[in-house]
Amino acid sequence: MSGLAASTKHVLPSGVTGTKAANGSGLRWNTECNLVMAWGLTLPASIALAVVRYCLFRKLRVVVLTFLSHRTRTNGRLLSGPR
Question: 62: left (phi > 0), else alpha (psi -120 to 50), else beta?
Fold first, then answer.
């Protein structure tokens, strides 16, 4: 064992593909290509999604902190609101 994490979504299709290839029974290359592409795109797509979420939450944090800082400087009252 290599000690690497293995998901059932990776192991099961690999086992079926290996069995079909060994038996010579109806291996569909189109399906296999789709599986390989999905596996190859999972990590880059996850990274891209994480970067987008990080940037959005960081921007939201700055906006919230700026708002709270402004309220603290004005003793809890908004300057544009009624007094």
Answer: alpha
Helix, strand, coil percent content, the chain, rounded in steps of 5: 75, 0, 25
2: tokens are 């290599």
Q: Is the pTM of the predicted complex or chain greater than 0.85?
A: no
> Is residue 50 assigned to a domain?
yes
Q: Name the residue range of residue 65's domain.
A: 8-73
Cα(36)–Cα(55) distance, rounded to whole angstroms?
A: 30
Q: Which two tokens stand for residue 58?
A: 């960081």
> Cα–Cα distances in Å, from 13 out to 5, 22, 29, 70, 71?
16, 14, 13, 56, 57
Compute mean pLDDT per 10 residues along the chain, 83 residues long, and list them. 68 82 80 83 91 94 84 62 52
Q: State the Cα–Cα distance between residues 45 and 52, nearest whole angstrom.
A: 11
